[in-house]
Amino acid sequence: MGDESKKRDLELVSERLSLYFEQKDLIEKVEKANRQFQQDFTELVDQLHERWVDGLKDVYDFPESGWSIRQASEGSRKYEKLYPDYWSQYPLGGSNGVTVFFCSLNKN
């Protein structure tokens, strides 16, 4: 059974390689399109990250709303913060408050 399994594995590899070489141009086009999509998406996320706070400030009066917003630091832009002001009171005397996070999908 071991020899039969190895033979089938080699046949599968051979089929995959044949398919790859037959469709090489199409595969390269799809990979190029995927790279371009990823680059465009990253640029969009960067633009949204840079503008989301200003956009919210244009619509809402945060000092009067009882809510605060905070951008993540430049080095770690994974989380942006939007939270009610009373959450920053740290009622248990610790250094951690409660915040609401959303992920910007940026892997930086």
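the 2nd protein, sequnce then structure:
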Amino acid sequence: MGFVSFLQLGGWYTVNDLGKQAVTTQFEASLSMLKEAIEKCPDEHWEGLIAKYPIWMVAYHTLCFVDYYLSRGEADFRPRVEEGIHPTGMAELDEEYPSRKFSRSELLDYAALCRRKLTEAMTAETAESLGGPSGFSRLKFSRFELHLYNMRHVQHHTGQVGAFLRRVGVNVGWVKAGWR
């Protein structure tokens, strides 16, 4: 699989290098916006409903799937039972409702963990792996597209939480790139 190269200040970069950098910084920005929404949600609105799910549950669901899709594939995902993030294992991702309520601090820690996993996952990607299958049987596209899909999922739910918060007078800012 050939890649077109571009001359940048300091040397040549392949689309692969540029693509990995862009996906990483934009994905970090998406996670940063979710983190800010979790931080700024007033205590009295932590149970506020987005459709039929409380804010904390929307944030938990989002982070669970970030974690899941950053794995090399569905067979490689290991639920974080010992850390208490997925107390019932895969059921936490498969069932409609989690087994317990998660606190703000737990979700902020999980967001930081997902950010670290993102950095590790993108660093490990190669031109071949990004062009290969997603690793998830129900997602019939490349790993590169999987990362875009995963990022869009974060933005979808961050937008829901942000819209709720704006209605109660809390503004979640826009993050251009990277982790805040």
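The radius of gyration is 17 Å. Residues 44 and 168 are 10 Å apart (CA to CA).
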